Structure prediction request, 237 residues.
Amino acid sequence: MTVTWSQQRILVLAPHPDDEILGCGGLIHKAKIAGAEVFVQFLTVGHTTDRSSSVSTTPEQRNVEIERVADHQKWDDWHIAFPGDEYHLRLDRIPRVELANMIEQRSPLSIAELRPTVVIAPHRTSYNQDHQAVAEAAHTAMRPSNGRVRHHPALVLGYEEAADQWRYDPAPMPNLLVELAEENLESKLEALRLYATQIHEHPHTRSEETLRSLAVLRGMQAGVPLAEGYHIMRNLA
Prediction:
């Protein structure tokens, strides 16, 4: 399978700021330098206390970090669908129809508005309830129907994060490996550094060593130095 990234309009769905980098920061850089359009739809952000470090952050701090990362990776636009503590880490309390409608048509970065060729969402194997809710809502929003009436992105992918392996059942092996150059991975790592309130020292799922190690592992599985792993939900060839 070969994707001509220069011809794509990509919509990335991120439950929280940094998920887009952890899951597909290398692909975003690879696609942007090829000439693609990239849009990031965040679902929520609120006050956060990291249980592993006792560091608290405000939405204002997170917005500054988003702007820095967006400038660094040259996104075409980004948007937060459900800002505030009412929704942060509580997306599973929102009826799926509301989440799906936001993704499908209500957001300024909705599928109906952007008409993306590629949509990349979190994979439902995550232990995080917000990730699960977004993955299920995205699945609903991109359900099969008449493509002449409703826009159907030709390529729909689920991205992986290192923390997704913490689960009761084995996480499925990614069935799409996207080769990364060193500059793609370095852009991903620099973006993680710019999310200064979220990065951690190793060993942690959000450390530079973890991201590099996962890229090396996925690259080895494809016979190349570096790669990111994805799960294909739809591939219209």
About this structure: The chain has a mean pLDDT of 95. The first helix runs from residue 19 to 34. The radius of gyration is 17 Å.
